[in-house]
Amino acid sequence: MHGVREELLDKQAESIGIPLLKVFVYEGSNAEYEKQMETALLKAKSEGIEHAIFGDIFLEDLRQYRENNLAKVGMKGIFPLWKIDTTFLINDFIKQDFRTIICCTNDGYLGEEWLGRETDKSFIQQLPADVDPCGENGEFHSFCFAGPIFKKEISFSAGEKIYKQLEIKTDDCKLPSNVITKGFWFCDLMPSE
After folding, report:
1. What local confidence, expressed as pLDDT, does residue 28 receive?
2. What is the mean pLDDT of the chain?
3. Which helix (H) or strand (E) segment is 122 a member of?
4. Neighbouring residues of 110: CB distance < 8 A, sequence distance ≥ 6
5. Is the dihedral of CA 112, 116, 120, 121 positive or negative?
6. Measured between alpha carbons, how far is 126 from 102 in angstroms, rounded to an integer?
7. Radius of gyration of the chain (CA)
8. Neighbours of 100 (CB within 10 A)
9. Residue 179 has pLDDT above 80, yes or no
10. What is the band of 180 on the pLDDT scale with cuts at 50, 70, 90?
């Protein structure tokens, strides 16, 4: 959903110093996603990993979905941010000098002009009232490129802005009834040295 190039994901994991287990989904169906995730989780479990950590904050149905899928392979989920106030979280994130850039927006909430913006105090102050400051309802997605856990900042440039139309029925994804998503804006972030 973030639309971030694989090379930037590699650089992010390298800079943080964590191993990266990639799971590829080609068809884009939930069934394929669940099958590929199950395969990857079983491999991780065979290596002694028993837990998966998620950054979800308050979406009960998403947490239940994750926990049900983990239970199928005998693993458990850890949700360290669960039920923490999102305004507190984003302000603490900024205070700790993490830096992110907006790489995707849901057009039901935010337009193309929000792409490429850094999530700083000004960004948070200018968000519409119906947008969660952490984007927890899928209003936007970001790419973290610097912060106290990074050995070095990830260099990139913001490229082309791309719109991808997608019809979502609000009943299917439980968006507020006043939100009509027609598609998503993406900013192509390109690695640089």
Report:
1. 78
2. 93
3. helix 121-126
4. 128, 131, 139, 140, 185
5. negative
6. 14
7. 17
8. 20
9. no
10. confident
